[in-house]
Amino acid sequence: VTYPSFNAYWAPASLRVYVATNTFTSLMAGGMFAFIWANLIYPEGPSVLHLQDGVLAAGVAASTPACMFLEPVFMMLVGAGGTLVSTLSFRYLQPKINDQDTQGITSLHLLPGLWGAFIMELVTIVGIDNNWVTLQNQHLMKDIMPHYTQQWSSAITQALITAFSLFVGGLSGALTGLMAKFTGKIALGGSYSDHVFWIVPDDFTHIGEEGADFKVM
Predict the structure, then answer these.
(1) How many Cβ atoms are within 10 Å of 21's Cβ, its own excluded?
(2) Helix (H, G, I), strand (E, B) or coil at 7
(3) Mean pLDDT in the chain?
C-alpha cells in the first residue's frame, strides 16, 4: 500500500505522481506473476508467502526505473522480472545462505534491486538520444533530471550509482557482521525475534520461532 509513496518521496515534485503510478503498475504485475512463477518453480504451488514476497520484489525492482518516462507495459515487465528473480532466488539460493541471511534480504531486496538497476541502465542506453524505446514526455527530463539527458553519460551515471549502492551495502553489512561477531550472537531460531529482548503476549507466535527464547551470548 505504501510502496508507491515510498518510491516517490525522493522524486522531484513534478515527477511524484508519475513515479507512484509506475510503482503501482509494477506491483500489480508482480502480484499477478507471483502466482505464475510460484506454480512453475515450486512443486507445492503458490502460497500467501510467495505472493507477499513477489509483490515486495516488484516494488523493489520498480524503485529505480519508476522515475523514467516508460510505458506501462514496460513497468509491468519490470515487476514481473523482479518477481521472477526473487522467486528463483528464494527457491534455489536462499536455502544455501539462510545462516547468513535469515530474513531473505538477498532474495527480496538485493537481486530485484539489481534487476531494476539493470533495466534503468538499459533504458539510459536505448531510450535516451535514440528511438529504440519511446520515453513519454522526454523533453521534460532536462529540467527534472539534468543528469539523465545524454545517452552514454547517463549510462555511466547510473552505473556509478549502482556501484556506490553495492559498496555502501557491502560495507555496512560487513560492519554489522563484525559487530555481531565481537559482541555476541543469537541462535538462528531467535534471530529477529521479539521473544529474545521483549515480553510479548503468550499467544504471539511466528513460524520458525521454535527455540527463540534460547539466547547465545
Answers:
(1) 15
(2) helix
(3) 79
